[in-house]
Amino acid sequence: MTNQTRTPLMAGNWKMNLNHLEAIAHVQKLAFALADKDYDAVEVAVLPPFTDLRSVQTLVDGDKLKIKYGAQDISAHDSGAYTGEISGLMLAKLKCSYVTVGHSERRQYHAETDEVCNAKVKAAYRHGLTPILCVGEGLDIRKAGQQVEYTLAQLDGGLKDLPAEHAESIVIAYEPVWAIGTGEVATPEDAQEVCGAIRGRLAELYSQDLADKVRIQYGGSVKGGNVAAIMAQPDVDGALVGGAALDSDEFVKIVRFRDQ
Ligand SMILES: O=C[C@H](O)COP(=O)(O)O
Fold it and tell me: Which domains does the chain have, with CATH numbers?
């Protein structure tokens, strides 16, 4: 399997932006701009804040939109006395498809360790959600030339004891932290180096067949103008988009990367 046969996944991580009314307007714009052929070529997903999910679900269900949606985080627990947490059970009830796990902002501001990410990945699978496991190095690690070892260690931690039947559907997002929200996009070669190493490690942990099925996204200052070169890399199967996902015109350009 090559990146010609893996369906690219373009996911917009809205982070802590857009209230539920803005979310409805934004998804409507995307739905209006994207034609059926776009969805045939690329899987499109939005990852709004929790407070928007019900509104997005109502819109997607009501108009039978092909756009997928998911959450930006999940509790490792299914229910109980965990104030402020949102469980996989709740996300599944809202028919979420995806959930990001271990985004660098969760790791940095909420001290999420690889162990916590591993528990969250397993919680997602308990409820039929597909995790997008985020990995990637900071600037100090990159300057030391340790980006591959560092990122693969995060991958190992996040996937610990995850059975192949689940791992084969996971999405991995490689996001070098120094490229997030900075305008400093990794070169296509930088992205390929680590994404290729991630696929190699998946083959070691599971099998080549499984590794060939897994979609690996790049994330970090992706825009309409740079997406095509990144997507041309053999081990890059999509993008996890932050800032540019808040602009519907720009996100549509990213979805239509083959036209760039
Ligand atoms: O989840 C998305 C990433 O953090 C990338 O954000 P960015 O596109 O604003 O650099």
Answer: 9-259 (3.20.20.70)
Residues with CB under 6 Å of ligand 1 are: 13, 103, 175, 180-181, 219-222, 240-244
How far is Cα 92 from Cα 70, in angstroms, rounded to an integer? Answer: 9
Over residues 68-90, mean pLDDT: 98
Mean pLDDT of all residues belonging to the chain: 96
Closest ligand 1 atom to 100 CA: 1
Mark whether 103 is an active-site residue: yes
Binding-site entries: 13-15, 181, 221, 242-243
End-to-end Cα distance, the chain: 24
Atom of ligand 1 nearest to the CA of 173: 1
pTM above 0.95, yes or no: yes
Per the annotation, binding residues for substrate are 13-15, 181, 221, 242-243
Q: What is the ipTM of this complex?
A: 0.99
Cβ neighbourhood burial of 29 (10 Å; 0-12, 13-18, 19+): middle
Give the DSSP H or E segment for 69. Answer: strand 68-71
Token reading at 73: 């985080």
Average pLDDT value for residue range 157-163: 98
The amino acid that residue 16 corresponds to is: M
